[in-house]
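Fold in tokens:
===
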Amino acid sequence: MFLPVYDDNNLISIDFQYITVGLIAANVIVYLIGLVGHYAGMEMSFALIPSDLHQVDYWGGPVPGHFMQVSVPEQYTLIGYMFLHGGFWHLAGNMLFLWVFGDNVEDAMGHMKFLIFYIACGICAGLLHSVMLPASHAPLIGASGAVAGVIAAYLLLHPKVRLWVLVMRVFPLQITAAAALGFWIALQVLMLFVPAAGPIAWWAHIGGLISGALLVIVLRRPGVPLLDGMVARR
């Protein structure tokens, strides 16, 4: 498995990736709030639960009173879920991908279009997950669906940029974005067909990838090419 560390891909149209940093900060703040509060209650309130979204009753009773339960319309959980994480490494992994790849996608779109893009990818990821698993009672949390959209956009914008990655999270290697992200995308598709592939919401990843690939075509700035062949600066 590749863990991205750094891409040598300078910003062109913006001075600083304010939205990318703001999204990372928002995710970290929500996580810290969860650490000092009743995180399980936040998860029950703001996580995306497909059976709730599709009005399939399965709980059979209220949430225990010691949880912080807030009444949130189910459609709002399509946004809320992407700012919740199940642990430090879940948060760190998603934010690392967003840090490495988000700035150049934001650069290609502009600040506000990138924010719209990110939220839209997260919503589409949640929707596909809930459509494919409509009776699931498992809460969906995490930014990985939205981040998958960023990955798809980056791959279509800068496939030849060279990245530094950690192979098996240990060994440094420099390879192209096409190789690293192509492998990651292929793995997401493959895991759909692996029985009992764990608690990861693979359909949410696929939904983010599809929406990211489509939206970057529409939302990129005029004149920003796809597959631009940009190479790393040495």
Observations:
- The first strand starts at residue 2 and ends at 7.
- The beta strands are 2-7, 162-167, 171-176.
- Residues 88-109 form the longest helix (22 residues).
- The chain has one domain: 2-219.
